[in-house]
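Q: Structure for this?
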Amino acid sequence: MFDINFLDASDSLFPQSLKLIPDCPQILYYCGNLTILYYCGNLTTESFGKCVAVVGTRRMSLYGRRVTQKIVQELICLGVTIVSGFMYGIDTTAHETAVNCGGKTIAVLPCGLNDSLIENNSDLAEKILHNGGLLISEFEPDFPAKIWTFPKRNRIIAAVGSGVVITEATLDSGSLITANFAKKYNKSIFSVPGSIFSEYSTGCLQLLKDGAKAVDSGFDICKELGFDPVKDIFVFKDSLRSKTEDYIGSKDTIEYKIYQLIKDSEKSVSELSEHLDLSVDVVSSKVTLMLLAGAICEENGKFYV
Amino acid sequence: MRGKRKILCVSLMLYILKSAAINGISTINANVEVDISERGMPYFDIIGLGNKSIEESKLRVKTAIQNSGFVFPNKKITINLAPADIPKQGSFYDFPIAMGILTYINNLIIPDSVYFFGELSLNGGLRYTKSAFIFTLHAHTTGITHIFLPESCAREASFFPGISVVPVTNLNQAVNYFKSEADKNLNKINTGKNDIDNKITCINNTNNNKSETKFKFTDFDFSDVRGQHQAKRALEISAAGGHNIILLGAPGVGKTMLANKYKYMLPALSKEDHVEVLKIHSISNIVSDELLKYKIPPFRSPHHSISYVGMIGGGVNPVPGEISLAHKGVLFLDEFPEFSREVIEMLREPLESGYIRIVRNRNSYTFPAKFTLIASCNPCPCGFYGSKNKKCSCTPRQIMNYWKKISGPIMDRIDLQVRMETVDAEDMRKNRKKSPGGDYSASDRRSPEIENLRLRITNARDVQISERGTFNCYLNNNQVENYCNTCPEGERILDEAFIKFGMSIRSYYKILKISRTIADLENSGEIKTEHILEALQYRINA
């Protein structure tokens, strides 16, 4: 499907970050822009040095999705390359958001680059490559994904990124394996707190207890990892925020009331009309306008900021 | 001398009664010919391509006649159901066959303009028999004046002016009606006829009275479903434009409850539609009062274990399936992806064309099937994907496979999609407090009163028929271009949404059609921006 090349561990282009780990893969198959991988972790160069892994559960909640979108967006704005595992759930969201923001992303696959796993999600793979991203795997092109290949690939994810962010994970999630590798390789581990009552966030909570750093934005991560003196942080923050707040305008509008309602927790049209005491047709058209303007987002019929 | 007697015999002992045969959902003239011959060994047989129930009719007829106090003739009796090359089914030939034999026994005089219809019980009584309506309809078109049928069928049959429906409880009553005056005086049983005459007037009276008892639609409004305002609104739009709709939501959010109320939002059936629907229903089962008296469109909700024959119709002598029973009404498929793939795919053509043609070796049958599809399904196999309170236990692959069962071509034919959420306990409580006698004004807009709703929907439908000749859901792309004229701002928004939401051309047209219906609901000639904005909330993005 794609042009697949490979690298020997002895090759001069073989990424430094991978060479440092004990069980470094002997051959790396890749497809796309290899440069971004080569410079990973090398903060002295101007570009591509900043690289963070964003991983999490396959079965995510809307919260997990929002967290991932937010953090990846911020990281991309700060010029960070996103590494993730190309599976459903958080991984896909991370890649998708990165691509949609025009950023670069590296997908580390648990199977050969010709496997059906990629075909199932070929749109995403194409988008990643189109945006100057990269697909890599240590398995030969036709190798199918097996249960044991997933943890194996996790060590590469951990090795490539300067740090690992776990945005949402249960206790049995594979992303905890990634976190474990990161600990072994002396990388920073970041975990996003969720509700202590949420079944989805148990893994993240455990990581926090074990000493992972709690983060709520991409800026925190960059600061922690010592990426660029984040000079433009407020500009970036503004550029992310302003869209919504510009749009909403004065306090009397329905838009403002909607914004207030969905700021904390996502809501559906029915709920909004209940809370605002307005008819569905009015709420629907307002919400569509806000959606089109990019002021709010929608997932499964629910709206959030 | 011998020759003359023979002729006399033949002319006296052959009785021909008029009847009808049901073929698909149409009827043809048929005769029940009863020949009683002195010659040959006594026997009793029925010919004319009858099915098993007609074959068994022999025993019912014989026993019923004997149990009614008559002596069954010990002769050679041949019954022919003409025309002989058309297969016949149904137990309603019992009555005409019995009357033919009773004519011989009692020397009755039966006029040519009379139909008999009904199944016999062994005690000589008449039981409820299906297809009374279509039978009477046939009688009506062939100039029959009287139709004798079981009392329990009279409700369905007394529909057409100019044809007297005579409800009969047993064979004796019918015999008495046709006994010559001389015989009656002889036997002093005159009461039978008076009875029947009384009953005729009785039935006619109830017919005249039917406009007085109004159907209480208020018993079926939306108030007992809490929240779900968006779903209610979407159902209103669906009802107004005939759009097919899919409801998504976790178990217990009220999908089935809402769908069950759908038929009460629809305007009453027009006269022609009513007759067409009754025809189909009378063949299959007992016709409900709601349909017969109040003209409420049919609502069918088959279980997902249904076979494809049950869904589209069929069998050796094809009978209409669920889609035809839902004609001019609603087909509600609960747990849509649980239906077998075969059954779901069968819906493709009828959804497009509004009829189904079934070809079997003898003949081909066309059944009408113009219905609105309401599909409901869970967001995933366990039902809790995207739910606030419960964790979904499905793998992404399972969810993908679940959705794969509904193929693209079927989704293409569904215009509206609504996600339904579990209502918060708090919201529910608030709602409950509000409803009894409290401030209705605000909640009324969200859960509109059924009478207002019906009025709006009826008006919107009338506009569509008078302006476009068809419901909005049946508009083709050219008609959409012609009729769905949008304001420039709306056009711009639609283009923007087209890119932003990654819509296909088909969904572009769907949005226009739905906007048209929303505009019709507000009696607006032009599609305004807010109509398009609202329509975009119901787009399908599975």
